[in-house]
Design a protein that fits this description.
The structure holds 2 protein chains of 2 kinds.
Chain A: H1 9-26, H2 32-46, H3 50-53, E1 58-60, E2 65-67, H4 69-92, H5 101-119, H6 123-141, H7 148-179, H8 184-193, H9 200-216, H10 225-232, H11 235-259, H12 267-289, H13 295-315, H14 319-346, H15 361-364, H16 366-380, H17 386-400, H18 404-433, H19 446-464, H20 467-478
Antiparallel strand pairs in A: 1-2
Helix pairs in contact in A: 1-2, 1-5, 2-4, 4-5, 4-11, 4-14, 4-19, 5-6, 5-11, 6-7, 6-11, 7-9, 7-10, 9-11, 9-12, 10-11, 10-13, 11-13, 11-14, 12-13, 12-18, 13-14, 13-17, 13-18, 14-16, 14-17, 14-19, 14-20, 16-18, 16-19, 17-18, 17-19
Chain B: H1 3-28, H2 32-52, H3 56-80, H4 93-116, H5 131-138, H6 143-164
Helix pairs in contact in B: 1-2, 2-3
Classes of the chains: A mainly alpha, B mainly alpha.
Chain lengths: 483, 169
Amino acid sequence: MLEKFIPISFELSVSVLAFLLLLLDIFGVRSKRVFAAVGIIGLILTLPLTNHMWGMHATLFGGAYVLDGMAVFFKVLFIFITLLIFLFSLDFLEKKFEFRGEYYSMLLFVCLGLMLAVSSADLLTLFISIELISLPLYLLAAFEKKNKASSEAGLKYFLLGAFASAIFLYGISMVYGTVGSTKFVDIITAAGKMNLYASPVMLLGIIGLLTGLGFKISASPFHMWSPDVFEGAPTPVAAFISVAPKAAGIAIIIRLFLLSMAAPQVQPVWVLILLLLSAMSMTIGNLTAIPQKDFKRMLAYSGIAQIGYVLLALAAATTLGIASAMFYMILYAFTNLGAFGVLMLVTRMNGSSSISEFAGLSKRAPALALMLLLSLLSLAGIPPLAGFVGKFYLFLAAFQHGGLLFKIMVLYAILNSVVSLYYYLGVLKVAYFDPPADEGTVRVPTSSGLALFLCGMTIVVLGILPPLSTWVVNITQSMGLSL
Amino acid sequence: MDISVIISKLAFYPIAAVILIAAILVVSLRNVFYAALSLILCFLGVASLYLLLHAEFLAGAQVLIYIGAISVLIIFAIMFTKDISHQYSSGTLLYRVSVGFVLFLLFLVMTAAYLLNAWTHAAAGGTGVSITDIGKMMLSTYLLPFEALSVLLLAALIGALFLARKEER
């Protein structure tokens, strides 16, 4: 009897955990540390479930839900991301009165949405899970009620996000009108027989779907919201928004386009759109990041550029492309969370996120400065670190595709990486060579320190152990690229 | 041709006209209160279209939720807000013309696509889906989205309460 629930056991346990935290609040638990501790222990306890799910290929709810290697891979990644955010929040929340139990429940609701989204094999389920990711995130962005910037971030994110969801839904309706079903299995069959000249609405549908997803992964030209939201939202929430929806969006693009619309009749359409998004994201992300004075805004633009690199590999539509994108999402998550974590500890006292806050960090907190060095160099793609291996595989996947357009794009992406080095090094220069404005050392609490240590270890280990990336390729191949 | 088919074909055009006119009024009326009332008219038109398509349950839900709840909420919000009749400028003339031009192009592209498209039709001659079918589907085929939706609503509810709550300290 219980076996039936194994494929959805991650979702079940995370929702139980979310409700448990709400109940704790009702039963009068007031210590924020208890909420975080229960959440962290609960999340760690779900990890052994992977054992039962690995290698499983199950389809549930009449084809609306799929559990395969890729789904498990991303679900475990989401658990780790949520764990790290819990660890960061533990210290961040201490000084904030308005953050209570519901903050952690909201994080878990987002985690539930992320898990459902990577398993959705039906457009309707997909739409609702994307909403389940977005809605709590809008609220979390506005959680600092006394801070005007936070409210503004929440409102901006909500209005633009609702607009993007509407376009996504419109795209769904057009695909449904042409295909006659919302299930990915039926889309595969219909795409194989489709003649786009006779079904131009399918074209508009694909554009609508990619517009909605492009917003969620903040790919240019749908990125306008992300710098403002990052700047205003509480730092742990900004860190969450910077990695989790992007990883889910990449997984959705893989399942919906690379796996479901792989038929040559429709493939050129979305490949072209992905290339366009990729080129724009790289250009706008990197060039706009250079003049930024605020670290969160800079990370927002750097994140836009990073998504551009991933989309380039996805446009190649090969197994290596999928594998490299999946590998890149792990290291991007840990690297970005590392950078945000350092910022959170350094600026916890005054709430500012200006780059000048890092002045003299190497003297005030050598460990934090080292962590900043590791994550920024990894984002820039400097050799011994994970970012280099990740980018190498992304570009290799695009290069192996063979087309001249792809070769030019790879050259352009490498050029962009060089440009990005400029602003990453600019921050490091402030941290290592500028005189500190404030002589006091920065206190590193245990939980945040542990989270940062995890991030740093991952960045180094994924970088010096290339077999790990071949491991991801093997997983992808064993998935058999099927639904 | 069956008489009911003729009636529904005849009824479609006036209803569609009402929806379109009401929708244009919603975005063009300067008085927000009148715009909200036009929105109700627009929703009513959509509900009638559902009736024509034999989707009685959907029509009922449309009236209950969109007219009964959402529009009333909008009207409440308008009445509770000060200075709502303030005239907002909608940009320079050049801006308005260029936006109008882009939207007109979009309109042309979409109309062309819709006219040329080979649509997939549902089984012809059906009398629509009954409430029983919808109920069964919600608890079988669409169980997962249905449950996810209830979690989503719960999250929205808690979030709204959190944002609206006055801090006691």
